[in-house]
Design a protein that fits this description.
alpha/beta
Amino acid sequence: MPRDQEVLLFAFLAFLALICCLPFVACQCNKNPVIFNFGDSNSDTGGYSAALGFNFGYPDGRAFFHQPTGRLCDGRLVIDFLCESLKTNYLTPYLDSLEPNFTNGVNFAISGSATFPRYVPFSLDVQAIYLVGGKNFWVHNTGPLGCLPEKLGTRKTNATDFDKYGCIKSMNDGAKAFNAELDTLCQELRPQMKNATIVYVDMYSIKYDLIANSGAYGFKNPLMACCGYGGAPYNYNPDIKCRDRGYEVCEQELAYISWDGVHYTETANAMIASKILSTNYSPTPSWVQLLL
């Protein structure tokens, strides 16, 4: 691993993530970043498609790439916006055999897979990366799972288990309990990993804010999938999901937070990336400190 380059380790680990920088402004980084991303469909830029030899198909990719790219989104993912802010190319899936370019890192994320075995503690995964040269770790906590149309449209929930924004309280409480443990783990790892930096990012608050204040952000359907079947209130049917025969897709995805009931739209991803990189949702050290 080159020692003259900043090593940025990104991990979207079934709702965990490792990320960087200020969006839509000139990056202050004075080194060439090398990014390694581990995760699932939330950050898969084509790994699953490369493995199977086909893309998911329309309507994925219609908002930006104008064709399917293996991303489960109408356009760019959060990881794509972060790469743009660093002025580096989008990450190439490690299974891509068509002229792969790994000069700026590689994306190990694959849809539908757990990045690491469940019986291996997350702390050991981080320490293993640290031992081979990992220096900067950005850890994103999990989002409000109880606000996903996929959960809302498939679970039988008592009326008392919905919060004032229409999300399932018990699921969100579980997410918050997980996040509290993850935050504690990050605090415990910092003194053990000398000369390394671990930044914990409150992804839950970022995503919940989009839903709670959806009108202020220009969203009209915060709990409804753009691509799916069944119409309001969630447009999610487990028997006819987005990309399945008979699916329906909205005309204006700009009004939607959810793309397919599980993944976010490009518009929502752009806002999430902006908030991540604002440093307002991370304790010190800030993103800027890590990039200098």
